[in-house]
Amino acid sequence: MIEVKNISFSYNSKEVLKDISFTLSKEFLAIMGPNGSGKTTLIKLIMGFLKPLKGSIRIFGKTPEESREFIGYMPQREAIARHFPIRVKDIVLMGIKKRFYTKDDIEMAKKALEEVDMLDFWDNKFNALSQGQQQRVLFARALVKNPKLIILDEPFNAVDLPSREKMIEVLKEKRQKGKEIIVVVHNVNPILHEIDKVLLLNKIKIAFGKPKEVLNQENLRRTYGIDVQIIICEEGYCHPLVGDTHA
Ligand SMILES: Nc1ncnc2c1ncn2[C@@H]1O[C@H](COP(=O)(O)OP(=O)(O)OP(=O)(O)O)[C@@H](O)[C@H]1O
Ligand SMILES: [Mg+2]
């Protein structure tokens, strides 16, 4: 159970989030909004990396700092130092956060890499991988501890279609096992049928609710400031044509 209540946040005097509230209960949430709308900031508040100016966040009844061990986190691409000479296995093991790793830890790391088809790269240098391969390794790191809450900030950027499908398949399984999942995406369509809720964000909460209720022309216009083309497909689902904006 995740409870975000009346959160506001400013960098110096620049307000980036204003009065954000929502609740999740064993659900899969997609956060959408234009560049600079505060998505990553909201994630960092939930992780406890930033402190809200106003409001409160509870994760399984605890503060973000207290809950960090239950959270698997994949930061947005830009936030990761990719030139540091570190191996794939060490990246994944970082998700376990221990000084010394046991045989079981190694097994868990291998299993997580296997889940994203990257086990062959166990001993490879992380910075010598392609962007999409790096994304998959970081996804494995977020999953390695079998976290109760999985938070992914633009996980599918630069990831090719088969790998993306694989990642979505893994998320579906986690969702079925009752995990909470929060994913920031520009293009919601690949996960539209998997998510329970959508949060449309642009400094304020534009809308929060089931994708069928939230993803309409009016809400998308208020979020992105332009008319967003929508394709209406099966079972009344609206597919907004908002593409990926990052490399
Ligand atoms: N460390 C910081 N110091 C000052 N301002 C910041 C900082 N980080 C982000 N901002 C500003 O806060 C606003 C929200 O940024 P944030 O990274 O949360 O947006 P975002 O929705 O994740 O955007 P994107 O889609 O580009 O990832 C932006 O205007 C950004 O310039
Ligand atoms: Mg961001």
Q: What would you say this structure looks like, in words?
A:
- With 247 residues, the chain is α/β, with parallel strands linked by helices.
- The chain has a domain at 2-79 and 147-240: 3-Layer(aba) Sandwich (Rossmann fold), CATH 3.40.50.
- The chain is 30% helix and 26% strand.
- It has helices at residues 39-47, 64-67, 88-94, 103-115, 131-143, 161-176, 211-214, 217-224; strands spanning 2-11, 14-24, 28-32, 54-59, 71-74, 149-153, 180-184, 197-202, 204-209, 230-232, 238-240.
- Strands 5-6-7-3-8-9 form a 6-stranded mixed beta sheet, sandwiched between helices. A 3-stranded antiparallel beta sheet has the order 2-1-4, with helices on one face. It has a two-stranded antiparallel ribbon with strand order 10-11.
- The protein is globular, with a radius of gyration of 18 Å.
- The two termini are 33 Å apart.
- The model has no long low-confidence stretch (mean pLDDT 91).
- Magnesium ion binds at residues 39-40, 76, 153.
Task: Count every helix, treating DSSP H or I runs of 4 or more residues as helices.
Answer: 8
Level-1 CATH class name of the domain at 2-79 and 147-240:
Alpha Beta
Spatially, the strands of the biggest sheet line up as 5-6-7-3-8-9
Assess the beta-strand content as a share of residues.
25-35%
Cα Rg? 18 Å
How far from one another are the termini?
A: 33 Å
* Major beta-sheet overview: 6 strands, mixed
The structural class is alpha/beta
- Give the cofactors and ligands: adenosine-5'-triphosphate, magnesium ion
* Overall spatial form: globular
Q: Which consecutive residue ranges, at least 5 long each, have pLDDT under 50?
A: none
Percent of residues in helices comes to 25-40%
The CATH H-level superfamily of the domain at 2-79 and 147-240 is P-loop containing nucleotide triphosphate hydrolases
CATH-defined topology of the domain at 2-79 and 147-240: Rossmann fold
Examine the secondary-structure arrangement and name the CATH architecture of the domain at 2-79 and 147-240: 3-Layer(aba) Sandwich
Mean pLDDT: 91
> What is the total tally of β strands?
11
Which H/E pattern describes the elements? EEEHEHEHHHEHEEEHHEE
